[in-house]
Amino acid sequence: MGRWVLDVAFVWKAVLTLGLVLLYYCFSIGITFYNKWLTKSFHFPLFMTMLHLAVIFLFSALSRALVQCSSHRARVVLSWTDYLRRVAPTALATALDVGLSNWSFLYITVSLYTMTKSSAVLFILIFSLIFKLEELRAALVLVVLLIAGGLFMFTYKSTQFNMEGFALVLGASFIGGIRWTLTQMLLQKAELGLQNPIDTMFHLQPLMFLGLFPLFAVFEGLHLSTSEKIFRFQDTGLLLRVLGSLFLGGILAFGLGFSEFLLVSRTSSLTLSIAGIFKEVCTLLLAAHLLGDQISLLNWLGFALCLSGISLHVALKTLHSRGNGGPEPLKGLGSSPDLELLLRSSQQDEEDNEEEEYFVAQGQQ
Fold first, then answer.
1. How many CB atoms lie within 10 A of CB 32?
2. Cα–Cα distance between 288 and 295 in angstroms, integer?
């Protein structure tokens, strides 16, 4: 009887993990192809990103209100001093990372975007070393060389290579290294109380919106104000379809954050890292099949080399975690290339997390 119960528990956990991974894939891969699809007809990626941020803030605020009503405990609200000093740098870096990533879809293919974004772990490692969040080891140097070499091979003589788009997404990956390092430092400050990703999203979105607004005003403001799709619309039906499409992207972005949190809270950050590796392969295969992206044998070898570097990084995280006798909090971020909105949740004690995780789980049903 006991054996049967253990088998059922194992099967249930495996099915739950598979379901959470598939949910994460749907949102993560979905938002990548959504961004590429929308930018083909709507050439205002910065405005699109800002509207997504507004939707995410709205859903985050609603989630916090529901959690507060159900738990009868007030959610954390930072003072203006902490908000501007501690959160603003992270918010600005995150806004630039997301904004430049979406901007690059005007010029490059999904496959080139996916491959280049995978290099974010390279910059994360570099900035982790600069801020002394990681120790310099020979294995980390090997990880950097594998990822850098793979990126070079993937872009070398690519038939669909575009320098402008590549520069945008590479810049986003570079800023992403700063972003995740700052986010790690932000979440490790226990006194701020931002360990829960919903609270983090709620506090980040307004400053991200304001940080992206000057860039939007310079590059898109005038064109958008004269566009017949938005401000000078003549067809109400077209306007509603455009706004509906933009709102859908915000839902996908928020769902991506929720699915990541669910996957980590119910399994581990290692599961998310491994799932992220296979997700990149799925994205490239779908891009080649659905969008006709041309990927040569050399490009595939470069991608395999890059994935080898990421896999080695994941393995090093696992060994380091086991060597310390427990999970390593918040180190080695970025093995999933398009974490558009959330950092995976830091480990909190079980009592503090029970009600919040229950709410998140219910919100996905």
1. 25
2. 7
Q: Are 314 and 147 in contact (CB under 8 A)?
A: no
Burial 334-363 (b: 16+ CB within 10 A, else e): bbbbbbbbbbbbbbeeeeebeebbeebeeb
* Band (20; pLDDT cuts 50, 70, 90): confident
How much is the pTM?
0.76
Which residue do the tokens 């910059």 mark? Answer: 123
How many alpha carbons lie under 13 Å from residue 143 in its C-beta half-sphere? 24
CA–CA distance, 33 with 55 (Å, rounded to integer): 19
Sign of CA dihedral 158, 160, 163, 168: negative
CB atoms within 10 A of CB 64: 19
Each residue's pLDDT tens digit, 235-244 = 888 889 889 9
The residues near 89 (Cβ < 8 Å, ≥ 6 apart) are 182
Tokens describing residue 189: 């400050």
pLDDT in tens, 243-295: 999 999 999 999 887 787 677 667 765 566 677 778 888 888 888 888 888 87
Q: Where are the alpha helices (DSSP H) in the chain?
A: 2-41, 45-71, 80-82, 88-104, 110-117, 120-130, 138-155, 163-187, 197-219, 221-225, 236-266, 269-290, 297-323, 350-363
Residues 6+ apart with CB under 8 A from 103: 45, 46, 168
Count the alpha carbons within 13 Å of 227 in the hemisphere toward its beta carbon.
16
Token pair, residue 7, equals 């088998």
CB 263 within 8 A of CB 20: yes
Sort residue 335 into left (φ over 0), alpha (ψ -120 to 50) or beta: alpha
Residue from 101, 97, 94 nearest 208 by CA: 94
